[in-house]
Amino acid sequence: MIFLKNSIKPLLAILISLLLLTFIATSLNYFNLINYKVISILKLIIPIVSFIIGGFIIGTRSISKGWLAGLKLCLVFLIFLTLFNLLGLQHKFKLIDLIYYLILIGSTMFGSMIGINKRKPTV
């Protein structure tokens, strides 16, 4: 229960950064400032950056083992994402989805390891 209480802000940070960065990329594409090739690359980069931000925030809040806190946070988010894809969109699960999820797990763990090293020590 304590983990879920501590993970509300990082989950919101992931969602807000996903929405904000996607809105910026969509606006730039709408005004023809970037082309479709850049958008296809940004579709991969934006979630990775968002999960690094969320991992950094959970890492600054955790006491020890930042990689474990990042793994838990990412698994909570990916469970919701997988359920949404399977039940809401009727998207079949493929191997490429598993590879993408593993990349997101690694980026969240990386962000949380950076975050735990950047937190202020308690005296």
How would you describe what is shown here?
This protein has 123 residues and is mainly alpha-helical. The protein has helices at 2-6, 8-30, 36-61, 66-88, 95-118. Helix content is 82%, strand content 0%.
Q: Let me know the average pLDDT.
A: 90
Helical residue percent band: over 70%
Overall domain count: 1
Q: Which class do the helix and strand fractions yield?
A: mainly alpha
Count the DSSP helices: 5
How far is the first residue's CA from the last residue's CA? Answer: 26 Å
Secondary structure elements and their pairing?
Blueprint: H1 2-6, H2 8-30, H3 36-61, H4 66-88, H5 95-118
Helix pairs in contact: 2-3, 3-4, 3-5, 4-5
In short:
The protein has 123 residues and is mostly helical. It has one domain (2-118).
Spell out the key features of this protein.
82% helix, 123 residues, single chain, 5 helices, mainly alpha
